[in-house]
Amino acid sequence: MVMPSYSKSKFFCGIDLHKDNMFVCLIDNTGKIIFHKRIPARYSELKAVIGFYLKDCVIGIESTYNYYWLQDACQADNVTFLLGHALYMGIGNYKQKDDDKDSFRIAELLKNGNFPVAYAFPPELRELRDLLRERLKYVRCRASLYCRFKGKVDQYFGYLEKFDGSLIRSYAKREEFINSLKSPSLKLIFSHLHHYIFFFDQGIESLEKDIWKKMVTDYPLSMKILNSIPGIGDILSMSILLEIGKLDRFDSVQNFSSYCRVVNPARNSNNKRVDNKNCKSGNVYLKWAFSQGACLLIRNSPQIKIMFNKKVSAKGKRVALATMKHKLAVAVYNMLNKKTMFDINLFVKSMS
Known about the structure:
Elements: E1 11-17, E2 21-28, E3 33-40, H1 43-50, E4 57-62, H2 68-76, E5 80-84, H3 86-89, H4 99-112, E6 117-118, H5 123-157, H6 171-179, H7 184-218, H8 220-227, H9 234-244, H10 253-259, E7 268-269, E8 272-273, H11 284-300, H12 302-315, H13 317-338, H14 344-351
Parallel strand pairs: 1-4, 4-5
Antiparallel strand pairs: 1-2, 2-3, 5-6, 7-8
Helix pairs in contact: 5-7, 5-9, 6-7, 8-9, 9-11, 10-13, 11-12, 11-13, 12-13, 12-14
């Protein structure tokens, strides 16, 4: 067994990170504990207690919501930083659990070369990715406001054709409807909903423009490649690229498909299904992007729609959609890897 390069360091630091403090365990390559104590969650505090050892030290933490600042500080100080996969870190836990045992266990995993390394996004990509994720949250908030506006219309006036389907998104239609109301209380209800929707419209549009400018400047070829897929626009292209990060972090298209959650994680024993674990292991945003992309691809390409309908007749709609998502993910991986545009004939051939 080839030991990973990080296990050849002289010192190993396991950190159990919390919001306002962190339990630090520093050991050497013989397993001797050098420092084992809780300190405030600041890099200056960490450097004050183990700064002498940082030159030849590996720092490892379990993936938490608040690790960004520590990653950035370590990279700025040229200290090796490793992020632990939260799921696999839980395997082989001690019977008793507390912060000092967790930090010591992380340090031991680093020393023994068994630390389950997760991908820590580069700061420049991570910030842009988080900005796009914020945009998705705003879109969902706006969608809930649409539902509340439409629900109030149905509640007080029944079905109105002017607000059927996507017509409720029209600023002018909503404004015209509010001006026609006679009840001051109703006018106030709908006015507030209308203004909140408009507020989110402006915020979402502004975010999209800022992210798009950055993406077409830094990744023009990748954006062009993904935009060549029928139905895949700028938003889905940006989502896919920013959630992938660096494509070379995936050893194969199989690993990429698994990460995108477009393959079935079969868990069988003696020709029987054991359980449904690992169904949510992977990136939920990429799963959403490829689910949306598959539906848009079917809608915008008559040739692919014919092939999809054949799959529906043979296997059912659920299996056909799952196959479409998987094939789209494989196509995106190969296109970005080989830097080629979408070939509809090749895609149809892969579906047959």
